[in-house]
Amino acid sequence: MRWPLVVAMVVGLLAGSVIALIVVSGTPGREASGPQPLTTGKALIGGPFRLVDHKGRSVTEKDFAGRKMLVFFGFTSCPDVCPSGLQVISAALDKLGPKAETITPVLITVDPGRDTPAVLAEYVKSFHPRLVGLTGSEEQVQAAAKAYRVYAKKVPDDKSPGGYTIEHSAYLYLMDESGGFLTHFPSTVGVDRLAQELAKAL
Ligand code: NI
Question: Of 141, 169, 180, 198, which residue is the least packed, with the fewest Cβ within 10 Å?
Fold first, then answer.
């Protein structure tokens, strides 16, 4: 992905959060149940999905119930941002050791055309033994990206296989045991910081 895009996505995400807070705080009757956490806008990120894992099995969010998910959208032919983001995830999980086993790292491809289950299987094993790669039909992937409010767009690129690359936003989304949004990090978060933040959520 490209850096001006990162800035645009940060601005977009912040704007979205503000709107979410306005919408939530404007809901009548909310105050009656006591103070609401500021993270109430969380329902806007994530949700049900139906995809195919790197072993070729059809999966939904229910297959991950009971575990936290650390979700990253990317694609296997991404030259830089995706591999470095996945390296950070892997290193942070390794740093936390066995207690991080309640967190499942998940790569959802934004490139289902090239990222078949077999391609993902080969890719995920170079990062973390528990990393799950998810792909699916174009529609399934689009629906998942939309649920996570991920920006992804095919753009022509002579240097890439198939003649295209994909611009995409690059955040790590930490989801709770029932698939609800907890927090997110930029893919540039860094190993130590990510490990620290994940430790808080364990
Ligand atoms: Ni990428």
Answer: 180
